[in-house]
Amino acid sequence: MTDEAERRRQHGTAYGFLAYLLWGVFPLYFAALRPAGPWEIVAHRIVWTLVLCLAVLLLTRDLRWMVQLARTPRRLGGVVMAGLLITTNWGIYTYAVLTGHVTEAALGYFLNPLVTVALGVLILRERLRGLQWTAVGIGAVAAVYLSVDYGSPPWISLALACSFASYSLLKNRLGVSLSPLRSLVGETATVLPLALLILWWLDQSGQTTWGGHGGLHTVLLMSTGLATAVPLLLFAAAASRVPLSTVGLLQFLTPFLQLLTGVLLLGEHVPASRWVGFALVWVALVVLSVDMVRQVRRTRAQRRARARDAREERPDLADPASC
Q1: What is the per-residue pLDDT for 183?
Q2: DSSP letter, residue 70
Q3: Where are the alpha helices (DSSP H) in the chain?
Q4: Are 243 and 297 in contact (CB under 8 A)?
Q5: Contact predicate 317/310, CB 8 Å
Q6: Residue 322's pLDDT is what?
Q7: What is the mean pLDDT of each run of 10 residues along the chain (323 residues)?
Q8: Burial (CB count within 10 angstroms: exposed 0-12, middle 13-18, buried 19+), residue 90
Q9: What is the DSSP string of 98-136?
């Protein structure tokens, strides 16, 4: 690896760490937005994220793609669906934080990779390797155990995992047609009417906290756009610089920090029996991570072997003097 490639990898790892670190402390941020409720917070998040991202696009004069998007019904429909799914995910997560269920939210994001793999099998007809089947099986056992322990399925966890996994699946089907910034603009713009309707209804019913709880509260609500866009852009910068395996392993930092935040800082109580369920999920994630790392190493070895075979078949390619 060259010095430039190594620096690029190190910077990418740092960007990824910062992105998942910020996502991991989101419970503290959303808790600071009280007395605003989940609906108001999500609506402001949509509005201010769109305002911030549009400002960036205006400064960079990058708006022509919107016309092309509007002229492509299939892609536009996919963006609308993505906007609805991510808004649902935001709403459930905000509700979980404000009602004292941060640990359940953390469980949802621990379960997310397993649900994503399961959707790949059910929807995309992907074939799983042995360790992947093992991880999904352990995850299913954990879900059943936690359902029995809770007395009902952990709906918040499952809803978060399924909504974000469905969002990821939809993005996979659409392909990399939009940059992260453009995608965020498109998704928030499609649900902007819903956000404005929510804010209007809250204002008419006297339930809004906008402008009535001091300047700091107003600034915090406006900063939801910054809190949404910054980690996303850091993640995009990381994904383009480091291997997928590194990104995959870093993603577990977020729910781990959320779990610590809920237990240590927000005072949530997790019974000993529930830690058993979490442990089962972690075992499944370890198995999944081992499989991911093994597959990345296998792929690299195959690429090196193909390159070596190509050099042996065409010696002139390896000899600069022959050019």
Answers
A1: 83
A2: H
A3: 3-24, 26-31, 38-59, 64-70, 73-98, 102-122, 130-150, 155-174, 180-190, 192-204, 215-222, 224-239, 244-250, 253-260, 272-313, 315-318
A4: no
A5: yes
A6: 40
A7: 72 85 91 92 94 90 84 86 91 93 90 83 79 86 86 89 86 69 87 95 91 89 91 78 68 86 90 88 86 77 76 57 42
A8: buried
A9: HTT-HHHHHHHHHHHHHHHHHHHHHTT-PPPPHHHHHHH
CA distance 31 to 38: 10
Instruction: Report how far apart, in Å, the C-alpha atoms of 147 and of each of 12, 39, 54, 154, 272 are.
Output: 38, 27, 43, 6, 15
* 78 Cβ contact partners less than 8 Å away, ≥ 6 residues apart: 170, 173, 174
Between the two ends of the chain, the Cα-to-Cα distance in Å is 24
Exposure string (b/e) for 237-248, b if CB count within 10 Å is 16 or more?
bbbebbbebbbb
Give Cβ neighbours of residue 298 (< 8 Å, ≥ 6 apart).
none
Cα separation, 185 vs 79, in Å, equals: 10
**Predicted TM-score of the model (pTM):** 0.82
| 8 A C-beta contact, residue 290 and residue 298 | no
Cα–Cα distance, 201 to 156 (Å, whole number): 25
**CA distance linking residue 34 with residue 43, whole number of Å:** 14
Domain definitions of the chain by residue range: 3-313
HSE at residue 321, side-chain half, CA atoms within 13 A, is 0
- Judge residue 58's burial from the number of C-beta atoms within 10 Å of its C-beta, 0-12 exposed, 13-18 middle, 19 or more buried: exposed
Query: Would you say how long the chain is, in residues?
Result: 323
Question: Which residue bears the tokens 């359902």?
Answer: 147
Nearest-angstrom CA–CA distance, 291 and 299: 12
Compute the distance between CA of residue 9 and CA of residue 238 in angstroms, rounded to an integer: 8
Closest CA to 158 of 122, 110, 123: 110
List the one residue out of 298, 297, 290 whose CA is nearest residue 249. 290
Q: How far apart are CA 294 and CA 131, in angstroms?
A: 10
